[in-house]
């Protein structure tokens, strides 16, 4: 395209579209690569859900069978988050704390893909949290729970050297949890009104 394309303003549009295609490829590749953690998430999540259900039963004195699957789904997905965020990175990384907001976005297609993946990672978390626990069925509680989980994960990454503590990650995870709760509320709105 050269100088003519730049004069018409075509080059930036073409390069953004090209970068967007790369970003989608990165996201797709990353989503497929984390599927290897699913068997381990089941091994960890199923016993964890049994423990959570046992504690719930001891506290309340009864257990409704309908709640078993949502709690199991929550525990399995929580295990998925921990495995992805801790084991998908090599150990021995530098212990970096990045508190600059939006520092990850716009550097390149790879970093933009990471930002979107952080949102996508927490959408199911917000949904299953709302499904499993009555207290998470409002946007504020679910978003705060997503933020607390994200801060915990970021601290684990910092301590273990398997990733960076980034404010951007916490923000994008909160957005994902909020969107997941919104999906839950939209799907079960009629049921709540009855």
Pick out its properties:
single chain, 194 residues, mainly alpha, two-stranded parallel ribbon, 8 helices, 2% strand, globular, disordered N terminus
Quick structural summary:
With 194 residues, the chain is mainly alpha-helical. The chain is built from 8 helices and 2 strands, in the order H-H-H-H-E-H-H-E-H-H. The chain is globular, with a radius of gyration of 20 Å.
Radius of gyration: 20 Å
Instruction: Give me the side-by-side strand order of the main sheet.
Output: 1-2
Shape: globular
Instruction: Give the % helix.
Output: over 70%
Please report which band the strand proportion falls in: under 5%, 5-15%, 15-25%, 25-35%, 35-45% or over 45%. Answer: under 5%
H/E series, N to C? HHHHEHHEHH
Number of helices: 8
User: What is the tally of beta strands?
Assistant: 2
Overall average pLDDT: 82
Largest beta-sheet characterization: 2 strands, parallel
Terminal CA distance: 60 Å
Class by alpha and beta content: mainly alpha
Which segments are poorly predicted (pLDDT under 50) over 5 or more consecutive residues?
1-15
């Amino acid at each position: 395209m050269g100088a003519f394309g730049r004069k018409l303003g075509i080059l930036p549009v073409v390069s953004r579209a090209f970068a967007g295609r790369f970003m989608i490829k990165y996201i797709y590749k990353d989503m497929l690569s984390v599927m290897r953690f699913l068997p381990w998430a089941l091994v960890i999540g199923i016993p964890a859900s049994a423990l959570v259900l046992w504690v719930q039963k001891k506290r309340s004195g009864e257990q409704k069978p309908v709640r078993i699957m949502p709690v199991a789904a929550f525990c399995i997905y929580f295990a998925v988050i921990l495995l992805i965020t801790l084991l998908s990175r090599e150990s021995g990384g530098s212990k970096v704390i990045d508190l600059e907001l939006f520092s990850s976005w716009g550097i390149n297609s790879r970093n933009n893909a990471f930002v979107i993946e952080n949102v996508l990672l927490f959408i199911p978390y917000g949904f299953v949290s709302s499904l499993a626990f009555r207290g998470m069925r409002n946007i504020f509680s679910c978003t705060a729970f997503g933020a607390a989980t994200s801060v915990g994960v970021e601290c684990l990454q910092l301590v273990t050297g398997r990733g960076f503590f980034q404010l951007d990650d916490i923000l994008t995870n909160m957005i994902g949890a909020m969107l997941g709760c919104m999906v839950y509320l939209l799907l079960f709105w009629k049921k709540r009104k009855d």
